[in-house]
Design a protein that fits this description.
This protein has seven helices and 41 strands. It is an alpha+beta fold and 697 residues long.
């Protein structure tokens, strides 16, 4: 049981996920949060003397990320870190000076101060558009790697159980990656965008999704998850019941706060704020030596929680809240049991000999069969469901993560029949287990019996076997060498594509030809000796195929060469766009600086003319100032457009680097990322293209 130990009402609104607690003087905690007008507000409840409790730091830009942390081991003071769409600022609040200011061309989307397993000092980890950057206390780059999309959450955990702290990053492409140096140690695909991550004990970490799901992973395997109709706005962990283990704490858009056991997801505490939760932070905000969980609401309400002291009798309000929580759990359990009892009552068959069996009872040996069907001629994929014993199917429900919007699909039969085909239009390639519920009844019956089953959906089920002559010619390939028997490679193809049709293998090699049911493009896999060639015009698909083959065959290190002429031409155009946008950005910044100086001169001249009574000159100066201001507004719109184009181009560059890296495994993959980073920083497009193609400089 928890108790609220303090409550504040700040005068400024608090932006979602933009709040942190830091000891900026080394001793007393302060709450820093982003508020309106591009400002950071610092609330210091322990301010003494003539020091103000509330201070404001003008950033004058849209604040996209904010955190605090201790970067210098020789100093006990925390540093305030503020990220915007173009830069990262490290600010020493105590001395009122910048420690460093770093341009981040693709913007700061997430921030964290983390002690990583491969770096000796704490790192400022910056999540950007398709990339992650590590910076030390001096603003020097420590590491850099690419991701599949915009990074939205960062944490640290020993995900792999090797006694080292890996960087856990969540992004908009539904992926959670555990990174060690530039290598991906673990990758998890979820059902929606990642909006929060929280470190837990040992190998566990908590996560939150945009669709209202929270849960816990342990060593890359999900322990539990729950889903709500409300959105998760904040996530953190803290030992709130004093058992020595961290609990997962979540804040929601409806103002709800929940504390759950990390092992089971059991709710041990609930409370509500007066408005949506903006942030959950930890710190000794009262200065009494005990860390509190501080809950911040968007309307400025701040509330701190501590475990209830066993020696102190709980208040009537706390007892009532605890009893209400237990009653709610019992009511839910009662409802489940009532539904179960009703089902038994309806389906009960009379046991008296000779009694007529009710019309809704189906034969006890009725069975349901399911199979995935892919047709390259019709370019369709469907799940065929059939039943027997003179029964018909009224509807089919499918439940699966990653592949269905809302994680479920319901197919209703207007005219019940013994067989039905449920169309599958999957937009992503993912190996998932589909839970199937089939509503079966007698012909003309109104009461349905539900048959439940599970079916493994192959990762590449949206690719159907096809004749080589019927496929379009593909000019792009990725080639690598492996020491595997052709039979093993054929087993991988059959496992991942869910069919042995179209797979020809023997002692001399393997040949497999498939057609994409999405766009009709070709995908062929061939092996001769130790050489494997994957032929497809889709660079991203080629990387997915290589990674799947490496995982199935247990390949820890794999180098390859790639030939994708169309992608290379497009990439050259993107790199030229990046250079052009950067040049325009520097030019417009210089022009803006000149215009700012001209504004200062005009303001001084106008004020001098006013003091001298030369109102004609004053009017002339203010007229020029008005024209110049109009030009500045137009130039600002140009800079905004140029910045958006630069961000889009940089995203494409980082995506290309990630796709190129996925054509390799292990050390070869890390070499590609490192070499590409060097080529990008040097603006060496030729070297970058060679690295992508050959995997080396």
């Amino acid at each position: 049981m928890l108790q609220s130990v303090f409550q504040l009402h700040l005068s400024d609104p608090i932006f979602v996920q933009l709040a942190a607690i830091g000891k900026f003087d080394g001793n007393h905690p302060s709450l820093a949060y982003a508020t309106t007008g591009g400002k950071v507000c610092i609330h210091s409840p322990h301010a003494s003397g003539d020091q103000a409790q509330v201070q404001y730091l003008n950033i004058n830009k849209e604040i996209t990320a904010l955190t605090t942390g201790q970067l210098d081991s020789d100093s006990s003071r925390d540093v305030l870190l503020v990220g915007t769409n173009t830069s990262l600022q490290a600010y020493d609040v105590y001395t009122n000076q910048d420690l460093f200011f770093k341009d981040i061309s693709d913007g700061v989307c997430a921030l964290a101060v983390i002690q990583l397993g491969w770096v000796s000092t704490p790192s400022v980890v910056v999540g950007g558009v398709c990339c992650i950057l590590g910076i030390d206390s001096q603003g020097t780059e420590q590491f850099w790697t690419v991701t599949g999309d915009r990074v939205t959450a960062l944490a640290a955990s020993d995900v792999c159980g090797k006694g080292r702290m890996e960087l856990v990053a969540g992004s908009d492409n539904f992926c959670i990656q555990a990174l060690y140096k530039e290598s991906v140690a673990e990758e998890i695909t979820e059902a929606d965008k990642i909006v929060g991550l929280a470190s837990l004990d040992g190998t566990k970490f908590g996560y939150a999704l945009a669709n209202g799901t929270i849960g816990v992973y342990d060593k890359g395997n999900r322990t539990w998850r729950i889903k709500s109709k409300h959105s998760v706005t904040a996530l953190c962990s803290h030992d709130l019941d004093g058992d020595g283990e961290l609990e997962l704490i979540s804040g929601w858009s409806n103002g709800k706060i929940e504390v759950r056991k990390a092992e089971s997801g059991q709710v041990i505490f609930k409370d509500s704020m007066s408005s949506s939760v903006a942030a959950l932070v930890k710190g000794d905000y009262r200065g009494d030596g005990a860390d509190q969980v501080v809950v911040c609401a968007v309307n400025g309400e701040v509330r701190g929680y501590l475990p209830l002291d066993p020696s102190v009798a709980p208040t009537p309000q706390l007892m009532a809240a605890s009893q209400a929580l237990k009653l709610q759990e019992l009511a839910l359990r009662k409802q489940e049991l009532l539904f179960e009892l009703r089902g038994y009552s309806v389906n009960r068959v009379a046991g008296v000999s000779g009694e007529t069996q009710p019309s809704y009872i189906i034969p006890p040996d009725t069975s349901v069969q399911t199979v995935v069907m892919a047709d390259s001629i019709q370019r369709s994929c469907s799940l065929a469901v059939s039943t027997d014993k003179d029964t018909v199917i009224r509807g089919v429900m499918l439940f699966a993560e990653q592949i269905f919007e809302g994680e479920s699909v319901f197919h209703y039969q207007q005219t019940p029949s013994a067989s039905v085909e449920v169309p599958l239009a999957l937009k992503r390639d993912a190996a998932v287990t589909v839970m199937i519920k089939v509503m079966v009844c007698k012909q003309g019956g109104a009461l349905c019996h539900v048959f439940e089953s599970e079916l493994r959906l192959p990762k590449f089920c949206m690719y159907a076997p096809a004749d080589l002559e019927a496929l379009p010619v593909s000019k792009s390939t990725v080639t690598f060498n492996i020491s595997e028997r052709p039979a093993r490679v054929a087993m991988w193809v059959e496992h991942s594509f869910g069919t042995d049709n179209g797979v020809q293998h023997g002692p001399e090699g393997v040949d497999a030809h498939f057609m994409s049911l999405r766009d009709g493009s070709a995908l062929t896999i061939s092996m001769r000796g130790t050489k494997v060639v994957v032929r497809t015009d889709d660079l991203e698909l080629a990387g997915v195929v290589v990674q799947d083959a490496a995982a199935y065959l247990g390949l820890a290190d794999l180098a390859s060469t790639a030939h994708f002429p169309t992608h290379m031409q497009q990439f050259q155009a993107v790199m030229a766009k990046v250079i052009e946008c950067n040049t325009n950005r520097m030019k417009m910044m210089a022009e803006a600086a000149d215009s700012s100086m001209a504004i200062k001169i005009l303001v001084v001249k106008a004020e001098d003319a006013r003091l001298l009574g030369e109102f004609g000159v004053m009017k002339k100066m203010y007229t020029q100032l008005q024209h110049l201001n109009r030009e500045l507004v137009m130039e600002h719109e140009k800079r905004t457009t140029n910045h958006e184009e630069l961000l889009e181009a940089l995203k494409l560059v980082n995506n290309m680097i990630q796709h190129a890296a996925k054509l390799r495994v292990g050390a070869a993959k890390a070499r590609v990322v490192t070499a590409c980073r060097g080529a990008v920083k040097a603006n060496n497009t030729t070297a970058l293209l060679k690295i992508i193609q050959d995997g080396r400089t």
